[in-house]
Fold this sequence. Notes:
By secondary structure, the chain is an alpha+beta fold. It has helices at residues 10-27, 67-81, 105-110, 135-139, 156-170, 174-186, 224-227, 233-245, 253-259, 268-273, 327-341, 357-360, and strands at 31-38, 41-49, 62-63, 203-205, 212-214, 230-231, 275-277, 282-286, 289-298, 301-308, 313-319, 364-368, 371-377, 383-387, 395-399, 404-407, 416-421, 427-432, 435-438.
Amino acid sequence: MTTSQEELLPGTRRALSHRIAVAQAEGRAPSLVAAVVRDGRAVWHGSRTSVEGHGPDENVQYRIGSITKTFTAVLVLRLRDEGMLDLSDPLEKHLPGTGAGEATIAELLAHTSGLAAESPAPWWERTPGSLRPELADVLGEQPFRHPAGRRFHYSNPGYSLLGALVEKLRGAPWEEVLRSEVLEPLGLDRTSTGPLAPHAGGWAVHPWADVMLPEPTEDLGLMAPAGQLWSTTGDLAKFAVFLAKGDDQVLSAATVLEMRTPAAPAEAADVVDGDTYGLGLHIQHRDGRLLVGHSGSLPGFLANLTISVADDVAAVVLANCTSGPLLSAVGADLVRIVAESEPRFPDPWQPLREVDAAELELVGQWYWGTHAFALRLTADGLVTLGPLSGNGRRSRFRANGDATWTGLEGYYAGELLKAVRRPDGSVSHLDLGSFVFTRQPYDEGASLPGGVDAEGWRGIG
């Protein structure tokens, strides 16, 4: 029997509507629009507005600011997957003469290049891009603030460089490449570099009075790959599905997983807050839940995209104010409301279709010294090894086809697991990166470094 989760329950919908109503009212936003995604499609849409009449719907454009960076990262990773570059390449190899060529492409993607956070004055978000016609104008005379690769330091100019890299290797403007390689294949026909009607106007709300001021809308020029895009909750809902599952027309599931994997060294405060950064995606641990996505802001607009892959739930929240509601918190709350009110049904358990007798012989309890571990075969064809109880080193392992397995995560990521057999074919022990796992604690029948005391186990006497 299968159970449909296509529609949200009335109580869940009311809780979602209440959350955005509070955000719009307390954040004093002229309008706020949101959507929730589950099972690969948008299942809820809500909006609040200060204007009489109908509120914005899933087709009304808002400026999404730095969520643009995630789109730019997708373009760069497409180049990598096609073999046109390596993430470890210095920028100078493909885009010479910038003055920032020592930074690698991976460092630019993860904001660890050491570049300045902003372009030199005047404030680039409220001035036309024509004031910065060359990359030298974007970077300034002293582009670096930190040694490359040492720390996470968010850099808007870094993504301007990545956009220029895309243009150089594709031989076409960033906007055209984005349209043909991402927007059209994913069906994002309401995402654009300029506003398309219907769209919201951007406003500044006075911090001490309930009055507003219209914000200018500028074309960002060379800074466009860092924050130019306009989009809708409908389009960003589709983009969230792509970032969770991949789409072979654009990027594989394995590559979007790489985007969602931490790539930046976290500072002490970030560790406490549970925040880090991947390749074009922000990663945070909130309320016991791993969330990925990105926020954005430009004068007059705020945006947030939040995804919980484990819960198969995502949220999009857009507002047309320079400051106001904390949309990252709103997005996380919308995900939490759905995930907790209507938890995801697990996939049905399925047995393995076939099993190798030599692999089956290895399952069960093993000991690393006196630490008890369990090795299991799972229906996805992987091997798992982890402590029988409590916390400790654990990992899944992928079969290599030669009676060895490679670790996929954690301490054992990339490490080789193999069974060491005696001359008669029986298993002596498991070897994992030189660690010896035996069937009994310090099994004297196994080949243990340092040997086993001849008197064996004993009490105090």
